[in-house]
Amino acid sequence: MDNHETVKPFLGGALTWCFLVGFPDAHALWHPSDDPGNALYASKMMVPLEYAGLGLGAELLDWAAGRAYDAGVLWLRLDAWTTNADLHQYYRGLGFEGVRVVATRASGACFQRPAQPYQGARFKEDR
After folding, report:
1. pTM attached to this predicted model
2. d(CA 117, CA 85)
């Protein structure tokens, strides 16, 4: 995988979500002691409104954790809007741990969870 890759998972032929996964220059948020190269990063995530409430976000993050596992890294990481406490709680409920908040960045709340095989069956990938 290159530095970033746009991923467009499909469900029944319809695009369900679009986001980037990859190995970005993560030094603005992740410290050397975090071993930034030992993680896959998900960013710019969005799901069309017609799919809201179907649990697709949770499963797609499971799918991204599977991509991290397949890449041989230990973590799936993401950052969230610093002041969005509801979103932080959502990620914690999906098994992410809060690592730190970089208060000088709008999207500076750093989260990670272990990479693990994707066990779901709803998504296939169109690359």
Report:
1. 0.82
2. 28
Residue 109 phi, psi (nearest 5):
-85, 115
CB 73 within 8 A of CB 34: no
Angle at 78 between CA 73 and CA 83, to 5 degrees: 160
Q: E strands along 4-114, which residues?
A: 4-7, 9-11, 14-15, 18-22, 39-46, 75-80, 97-101, 109-114
Give the sign of the dihedral formed by CA 74, CA 78, CA 83, CA 87. Answer: negative
The full DSSP string for 28-52 is TTS-GGG-GGGEEEEEEEE--GGGT
Please, what are the averages of pLDDT over each run of 10 residues along the chain (127 residues)?
A: 54 57 68 90 77 82 90 93 94 97 90 93 59
| Upper half-sphere CA count for residue 1 (Cβ side, 13 Å) | 21
Q: Which helix (H) or strand (E) holds 125?
A: strand 124-125
Do residues 53 and 103 make contact, with C-beta atoms less than 8 angstroms apart? no
